[in-house]
């Protein structure tokens, strides 16, 4: 429920309502706006009787928000959220960001060479998995803490903030020591304990869409993070599973403008996992930016043939350089 106040309501009116909402057993969250204040009511399961509230001084109207997400919705938070990743701003009105790097950190040489190269082409963050969520247990699972150390070294040498995946609630504290942006992978989008745990740390989160998640389930997953007090969340579309097998997943680009209607959170697109195919990555990265994405996440490897994971979708260095020059022209064209 959202209580919209009159434009001349006083702070005392807002405080009185917050008190009454608390007495009803719910949490009141005042949302100051340029025109008027609104008060979000959280913690209710189902419809809340609003008769008492409508009689209180300063109340203009009450909106019943039946969506499973509230803090994430534009109803509760009309202004766009800008996420700050170690000084790099992500969100509407900011220059679209390019996050690049290998699927997994494999060696010191691999990650440092890649970091310096992607930085020289204009990438603003470095990605690299240290804890890898692989489909089968007999494949490369990542270098774990050693991988975090190498990634951190590459981040320092290149000056790029680092993004890496956290798979378990037990690892959040460790990963938060190294990462500037904590990634929740598609396979963990509904790992609710993990979502709550990253909601409790003061680090921004990149939440990837589950491969079979509806837009509503995706936003409800983000709600878990915001409900713990962390509003620094970037959504990431990475393709969903459909009947089509010609591509690894099906890139649902309509989620970009749709999520911006429904939510104030920024959204990025990962065309690498969405397509699974090197030749499709650049066209879909550009399409993502045209659709309004706040950034793209691109897998790049110095030698994709030898990559320990996701080689077929990783761009080569020349391929990435070419894409970056195309993105540069495109962002000029888009007026960013
Ligand atoms: C990744 O970014 O390397 C990854 C595993 O992505 P996703 O969770 O989208 O499959
Ligand atoms: Mn990958």
Q: Helices, strands, pairings?
A:
Blueprint: E1 2-5, H1 11-23, E2 27-31, E3 38-42, H2 51-54, E4 59-63, E5 83-85, E6 88-90, E7 97-101, H3 108-121, E8 125-127, H4 144-158, E9 162-165, H5 172-178, E10 181-184, H6 192-200, E11 205-208, H7 215-227, E12 233-237, H8 255-262, E13 267-269, H9 271-275, H10 278-290, E14 295-299, H11 317-334
Parallel strand pairs: 7-8, 7-14, 8-9, 9-10, 10-11, 11-12, 12-13
Antiparallel strand pairs: 1-3, 1-4, 2-3, 5-6
The protein binds phosphoenolpyruvate (PEP) and manganese (II) ion.
Structural class: alpha/beta
Termini separation comes to 36 Å
Question: Count of DSSP helices?
Answer: 11
Order of helices and strands: EHEEHEEEEHEHEHEHEHEHEHHEH
**Which regions have little confidence, pLDDT < 50, spanning 5+ residues?**
none
| CATH A-level architecture of the largest domain | Alpha-Beta Barrel
Radius of gyration of CA atoms, rounded to a whole number: 21 Å
Task: Give a quick rundown of the structure.
This protein has helices at 11-23, 51-54, 108-121, 144-158, 172-178, 192-200, 215-227, 255-262, 271-275, 278-290, 317-334, and strands spanning 2-5, 27-31, 38-42, 59-63, 83-85, 88-90, 97-101, 125-127, 162-165, 181-184, 205-208, 233-237, 267-269, 295-299. It is α/β, with parallel strands linked by helices and 336 residues long.
